[in-house]
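Final report, Chapter 2: Outcomes

The project's central promise was a pipeline that accepts a single protein chain and returns its three-dimensional structure in a standardized token representation, suitable for archiving and comparison. That pipeline is now operational. To close this chapter, we reproduce one record exactly as it appears in the project archive, with the input sequence first and the structure output second.
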Amino acid sequence: MAQGLNSPSPSPAPANSGTSNVAGKQIEDVHIEVSPAGPQPNPPPPMDTHIDCILTQQGSSKGAKLQGDRIVLDEFGGPFCIRLKLKGWLKWRAGDPLWITRDNCPSSPAVDHEQIWLDKNPKNDTIVLLDMNVGDACTLHYRMNFEGHVHCDPIMDNGGGGTIARF
């Protein structure tokens, strides 16, 4: 996380407000439902296995849109409070729910802390992260880890350009 910014609360805005403020910046709320594209593997695979997921944006958000399995954030938009809510048989993997790296799919636990603040403790099947969308435009690759040795990997295109005031 950028220096000088206090960690925001995991829920910086009420669910129906759409925006909030932290450190003088407007935060846009983005709600995404993550559903499995098929039935739960039975029996569960013996090793970690990729599955297809369907992302569905709930409501609208200024500066953020969904294009297939990509969350696209506008240049100079945000920061964005992104809420990923699981549907169907999906459950977050305890202690290891989400990996996020720049430019390549993550192959081990990691979070790009220059762009992302992550609350790794899901509540009501929802994980909350804050994407600062600062600096140069970049592509962030996510790996959502689920119970039963399965994962899916959507992408986030950060438009960049945002700045954080230094105190």
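Archive annotation: Residues 23-38+49-158 form a domain with the Immunoglobulin-like fold (CATH 2.60.40).
This record, like all others produced under the grant, will remain available to the consortium after the project formally closes.
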